[in-house]
Automatic annotation (TrEMBL):
The lineage of its organism: Eukaryota, Sar, Alveolata, Dinophyceae, Suessiales. GO terms for cellular component: plasma membrane. The keyword Nucleotide-binding applies. One of its GO terms (biological process) is phosphatidylinositol phosphate biosynthetic process. The keyword Kinase applies. One of its GO terms (molecular function) is ATP binding. This is PIPK domain-containing protein. PROSITE patterns: PIPK. Residues 1-333 form the PIPK domain. It comes from Symbiodinium natans.
């Protein structure tokens, strides 16, 4: 009886910002309350996501007690969890993130339905009834690893490298309660690797083929304007890069006469393949804007003043953050005439090749588990 009372007591929180009663469903054996699903259902249908995409009947299909390795890169301590097929990532939400998603669900889904955005698609917002924890389920933008490099970029001092040469870089951060970390002579090899990854990410410049370049820059600028209008800051551009050898490029159908059409992309993903004329290699880029649920709050204002002596910090008001974000990537992503844009058919073939060889070689997807997609 007491458990039922507690569950009923939570229900008003779930209806906040939504129309209609919150509904229940099962996800990997757990009872959850889904929020604003009249919005997210439309996006799932548009992206051909099955209604049972997280409910395989297997309680191990989504283990919310086993975060993936990339969770360590988040500063808020919120876990990220891979679905068993690796196509989706489930992320735990802070109270502010949860409220922001309740508020933004309608306009956010409307923007994603237009298919002219880099923002990572969100397919479900729910609460685990047993624990009261809030989560969202979103598209995994980099499901088929490993990657030559993967970056989390904000256009400021928080830029970092997440993966390099197929290996996840574990963050080793300086903190006020770790005084020894402020002296480089005390740094561990792991700290040096993390630091070098940050230096590399801050200096990153990427060449992009002509038509792809125009499409990417325009979407970044448009998304930044939209996020400013909704008072959001502290988001990142996730960039994943891989190079495939000439023989693989040929087997995927890459060539100098390939025709790439703007907007020609896989559902829910933003990825571009380009043939390097000088080496014959196939360069594949995956990009997406992530972590776009941080509103400008009084605590953010306080943090901005505490960090007064940091001159390129992430904690700045949304207009400044968005303008800097768009300008940074306009400067760092440059049109490269040595690259020839490839069609989505070539890009899809490259991804299939990577998935097949990922499984054959037993390469980890980042959490020590082989992929099953």
């Amino acid at each position: 009886m007491m458990c039922n009372c507690l569950e009923r007591a939570r229900t008003p929180l779930l209806q906040e910002g939504s129309s209609g009663k919150a509904s229940r469903r099962r996800i990997a054996g757990r009872v959850v309350e889904v929020l604003n699903d009249h919005y997210f259902k439309e996006l799932r249908e548009k992206h051909k996501v099955p209604e049972d995409f997280l409910d395989t009947g297997n309680t191990q299909a989504l283990n919310l007690d086993l975060p993936r390795l990339e969770s360590s890169h988040g500063k808020g301590g919120h876990g990220q969890f891979n679905s068993s097929c690796r196509r989706y990532v489930v992320k735990s939400l802070s109270k502010d993130d949860h409220k922001a998603l309740l508020r933004l669900a309608g306009p956010l889904v409307d923007r994603m339905l237009q298919n002219r955005t880099l923002m990572c698609p969100i397919y479900l917002h729910f609460m685990d009834v047993a624990t009261g924890r809030f989560f969202m389920a979103m598209r995994n933008l980099t499901e088929a690893g490993p990657w030559a490099a993967k970056y989390d970029l904000k256009g400021c001092d928080d830029d970092k490298t997440i993966e390099l040469n197929g290996k996840t870089i574990q963050p080793v951060r300086k903190r006020f309660y770790r005084p020894h970390m402020w002296c480089q002579c005390m740094w561990s090899p792991e700290r040096w690797l993390y630091y070098q990854g940050k230096v590399q990410a801050r200096a990153l410049r990427l060449g992009v083929a002509g038509s792809h370049h125009e499409e990417v820059i325009q979407m970044i600028k448009s998304d930044a304007e939209w996020l400013i209008s909704h008072d959001i800051m502290d988001y990142s551009l996730l960039v994943a890069v891989r190079r495939l050898p000439p023989e693989v490029a040929k087997s995927c159908g890459a060539g100098l006469d390939s025709v790439a059409c703007p907007g020609d992309a896989a559902i829910g993903l933003r990825r571009w393949a380009m043939l390097d004329k000088t080496t014959g290699e196939l360069l594949v880029l995956h990009m997406g804007i992530i972590d776009f649920l941080q509103p400008w709050t009084t605590s953010k204002v306080a943090a901005m003043y505490i960090k007064s002596f940091e001159f390129n910090k992430a904690t700045v008001p949304p207009p400044l953050y968005g303008q800097r974000f768009a300008k940074h990537f306009e400067e760092r992503l440059k049109k490269d005439d040595t690259l020839t844009a490839q069609s989505e058919t070539v890009t899809s073939a490259a991804e299939r090749w990577c998935q097949e060889h990922d499984g054959m070689n037993g390469i980890s997807n980042g959490d020590g588990m082989p992929g099953q997609c």
